[in-house]
UniProtKB/TrEMBL annotation:
The protein's Enzyme Commission number: 2.8.1.1
Name of this protein: Thiosulfate sulfurtransferase GlpE
Signal peptide interval: none
Native species: Meiothermus hypogaeus
Alphabetical list of InterPro entries matching this protein: GlpE_sulfurtransferase, Rhodanese-like_dom, Rhodanese-like_dom_sf
Stretches assigned to the Rhodanese domain: 19-103
Pfam families registered for this protein in UniProt: Rhodanese
A molecular function (GO) term: thiosulfate-cyanide sulfurtransferase activity
Superkingdom: Bacteria
Class in the EC hierarchy, top level: transferase
Alphabetized UniProt keyword annotations: Transferase
Gene name tied to this protein: glpE_5
Length: 105
């Protein structure tokens, strides 16, 4: 895949191109940190729920995991891969990096 740095990380500058593949975007932040306006169209499934399998994520569609800095979403990706998911991607630097890049333009 041309979008990847490594197995699970998507460079933020490739996000626009990657979104053309219609991934399911999942925000894994805890409820107290979740803001639906941070990433339009994202569904909210906290890391805890992913860790314990409390979700109905599709295995046949790319899944882009996001959080504030990219740490919790990377962990969520590891849990999903361990559960047999192959089309899992983590946004490098998280939403914080996206906001910073948007503000510098």
């Amino acid at each position: 895949m041309p979008y990847l740095i490594d197995m699970r990380t998507l460079k933020s500058e490739l996000l626009k191109s990657f979104m053309q593949d219609n991934p399911l975007v999942v925000d894994v932040r805890p409820p107290e940190h979740y803001n639906q306006d941070d990433f339009e169209g994202a569904v909210h499934i906290p890391l805890h729920d992913i860790q314990h399998g409390n979700h109905n994520l599709p295995k046949d569609r790319p899944i882009l995991l996001v959080c504030e800095r990219g740490v919790m979403s990377e962990l969520a990706g590891l849990y999903l891969e361990a559960a047999g998911y192959e089309l899992v991607y983590n946004l490098e630097g998280g939403l914080q990096k996206l906001r910073k890049e948007a503000n510098s333009q």
